Amino acid sequence: MSPATEASEPSPVLLELVGVTRVHGDGERRVVALREVDLRVRLGELVAVMGPSGSGKSTLLNVAGGLDTPQSGAIRLGRDVLTDLDVAGRAALRRRKVGYVFQDLNLIPALTAAENVSLPRELDGVPSRQARKEARAALAEVGVVELADRFPEEMSGGQQQRVAIARALVGPRRLVLADEPTGALDSHTGEAVMRVLRQRVDAGAAGLLVTHDPRFAAWADRTVYLRDGVIVDATSDDDASELLVGAGTGRGRHAGDAGD
Ligand SMILES: Nc1ncnc2c1ncn2[C@@H]1O[C@H](COP(=O)(O)OP(=O)(O)OP(=O)(O)O)[C@@H](O)[C@H]1O
Fold first, then answer.
1. Which domains does the chain possess?
2. pTM for the model
3. What is the ipTM of this complex?
4. Which segments constitute the ABC transporter domain (predicted)?
């Protein structure tokens, strides 16, 4: 096989939204938070979502991860069609496949880093010993395995966010949904957390990142811009990203990598 043939092989699509519409409220309070949104995110790909306040960014993340359901359209996660599942089915799929990282460093204060990371696996029925092993591996991947036995209050904000990224992608989970994960951090720490997220996605995950800050969006492979629930612009479309994905992983396609 020639290198050119290898290079044209795109990574599989992990998350796909087709014609997704989500309306909140009714009557005078009716808001179309998402209108006929189409989006695909491949393994190895980090997609930034930007847009003004109220444009639908959080709603997009919530429907993508099955925390919220659209009125119409379809959402596929790997081989599963989220929008065909009932509440219990969505919750199970979410636990197995999706991790969240929020702005407010939402680790459980009474649990150590390792316990925070192993908890979702134990909730999913994985035996404690294996869950702990997976947690240590996940912490090692984000460079904080030495913090395994510390409680959140004994860690810096940036360290807590690394633990949150480890928790989001522990075990077989492959989709990370990050809503302003750098919002509570200074810019230097925020960059360090973005580097970890980028590396983790490159190592075999897909990510959707809501951010207001173009410096953090620069770590993504592409950016989609939402306005009034509609994707109005994107730095490059899926076809373009297919060509880029051919280079192997996502590395080397983002401005933030230069100083790595
Ligand atoms: N549970 C809800 N009930 C009613 N309206 C809602 C609800 N959630 C969101 N909305 C409305 O849907 C629209 C999109 O909200 P969303 O939170 O997705 O926007 P956003 O881009 O994430 O905003 P921000 O940047 O301020 O977090 C807004 O007009 C918001 O007021």
1. 13-107+165-235 (3.40.50.300)
2. 0.84
3. 0.97
4. 15-253
